Every structure is written in C-alpha cells, then in structure tokens.
Amino acid sequence: MRQFDYREKWKKLLTPEIVSYLTQIHEFRGEQTLFIEAKADTLTQLVEIAKIQSTEASNKIEGIYTSDERLKALVKDTTRPKSRNEQEIAGYRDVLNTIHDNHDYIPPKPSIILQLHRDLYKFEGFDIGGKYKTADNIIEEEDMAGNKSVRFQPMPAWATPEAIEELCKALDEALATEQIDPLILIPMFILDFLCIHPFNDGNGRMSRLLTLLLLYRAGYIVGKYISIEKLIENTKELYYDCLQQSSVNWHENKNDYEPFVKYMLGIVTAAYREFSSRVSLLATSGMSKPDRVREIIKTTLGTITKAEILEKCPDISQVTVQRALAELVESGAILKIGGGRYTKYTWNNE
C-alpha cells in the first residue's frame, strides 16, 4: 500500500541541479518582492494577461477550447458560458480568482480540495463537482497509429478518500518541520495527487490550481503575473514525460521524484525570468512606446512575433505596435521574416 511521508524522501533531491534552481528562485523572489512594493500599480495589466493565459492554457492541455474573443470575455466575466467547454473555462476562471485573492486563507485540506473541485464544475448542468471518483480510472496514452495503452493505474476509487487525507497530512507534517524547502515539497505533493487521480474528471486542472495555491502560500507569487500554466502547456510533452518517469513504481513506494521536481522548478525559474524581463520594460521611464518596441526586438535573441511583443508590453496597443514595426522595417532597423499570422521580426545586426 502506498505510504505518504516526505520527511526523509526530500533529502535525495538535493542534487546540484535542483539546488541551483532553488538558489535562483530565492534570488528572483527577493527581486520581485522589492519591485511589487515599489511599482504595484504598473503590474495590474500583467495580472489580467496572466489570468487569460492561465485559464486558456490549463484548459487547452485537456482539449478544452473556445475562441480568443470568447475566452477574454469569459475571463473578464462579461458574458455567460454557452457550451460545456465554456462552462469548464468559466469554472477554472472562478477558482483561479479565488486562489489569487484568498490563498492565505485556503489551507490544502481534503475538504478544501473538494470545495475547489466543486467550484470548478459549478456551471455544469449535472452534479459532478466536489466528489471523489466513483469508479477506478486509468491514464491512457495513444501512439501514432491510434492504439491506446495504459500509462498508469491510479489509486482505486475505494482507497481515494483515505489517500487524500494521508497526502494532506504528510504535507502538513513536512512543512511543520520547517527544514524542507516548500519548492521541493510542492511538486512532490502534486505528483502524488496526480498518481492518486482522485476525481472522475478535472485532475490535471486541479493539479495546476493546487500548484499555484501552494506556491502562493509559500510566498512564491510569480504565477499571479506570469502564467505558469502557459509555460507548462508550451512544454507539454516534457511535462508528461517527467510525470511518467516519476510515477514508475509509485504504488511500491519506490518512485523517483527527481524528474518531476526538476521539471517544475525549471518552470518556476522560467516564470521568474519572464517576470524580470517584462517588468524591466514596464518600469522603463522616459522611453516612448515605439522606442520600447524597438528595445524589445534589439534585446531579443533570434526572432519575435507581434503577439510576443504585445505580451511583454500590455500597456501598448496593437495599433501602436504595428505602426512601430512598420517604421522599423522601413528604416532597416529590423528584418521582417515570413508573412501573415506567421510573421516574425529580428534585429538587423548588419
């Protein structure tokens, strides 16, 4: 039977690579805290963009889509969901907002996890939220030929309630020692949560919401400004590969947490780097908006799209960015590559 106890297992994870990630994240957190205290007003737009990206990406990983226009309206709560996909997107939006606004008052307990799952499905016409799975489930994979096979056999339904109780208890006990870095504990907890797979539906999205909740409660709030879910979606194949590696021999208490922990620490590090990049542009004083567009392209290695520029500068309108790009191309300062939706730009170093 699977046992949950992190008080010794974490020690094996202090590899040079993981320690390097931890050091970088601690330094980034200090920088972020100072910036938020000094420039909180300039970050409002980053928060709104991150909410849209997080809601879109986490649902997209599970094959849940809607149009860009409808997505933005749903996240801003200016329209009502019209389909099941949109109901699930609206549910994610509400749980994400709850975590953003109240994380200090939401302890990771079984009753809270059930409540968050209930809210994830509150727009559904049938009662599936807030209940553990009623039948055993499996995690499948499909090859290029369409053949399906069992990738992992999660905890059986009858054992799920007790497993979640023990999982949350193990996290509490490990955090109470104050000897274990939460950055290591959080991905260990999330891996175990995914291996239990406690719900009939919504396990992946719940795991990402719980990741944010636990990071925020530990003082790592970068996900409020940079979408961690989008970074995961952009590296989805590696995410699933590391999850698979760390779940081998899980039922026998012999699994290796390192691949998944290392992956998640890489994601958090990338989020902090992106935050630093964006706020340095947002905080630039005395520079015109076209000049900021110019600076972004000049300091970007390789190519960049208009959409990526807009992400980095949420206070600059699409019209202004388009005009700046046209003028930079005409002057020869940048090079335009491709056309249509695939157009990219790069600094002309010649």
Give a description of the structure.
- The protein is globular.
- It has two domains: 9-281, Fic-like fold, CATH 1.10.3290; 286-347, Orthogonal Bundle (Arc Repressor Mutant, subunit A).
- The protein has helices spanning 16-39, 44-61, 68-75, 84-102, 110-120, 160-176, 182-196, 203-217, 228-234, 236-247, 258-282, 289-298, 306-312, 318-331, and strands spanning 139-142, 148-152, 334-337, 344-347.
- α1 runs parallel beside α11, α2 packs across α9 and α4 (84-102) packs across α5 (110-120).
- 58% of the residues lie in helices and 5% in strands.
- β1 and β2 (148-152) form a beta hairpin.
- The mean pLDDT is 90.
- Strands 1-2 form a two-stranded antiparallel sheet. Strands 3-4 form a two-stranded antiparallel sheet.
- By secondary structure, it is mostly helical.
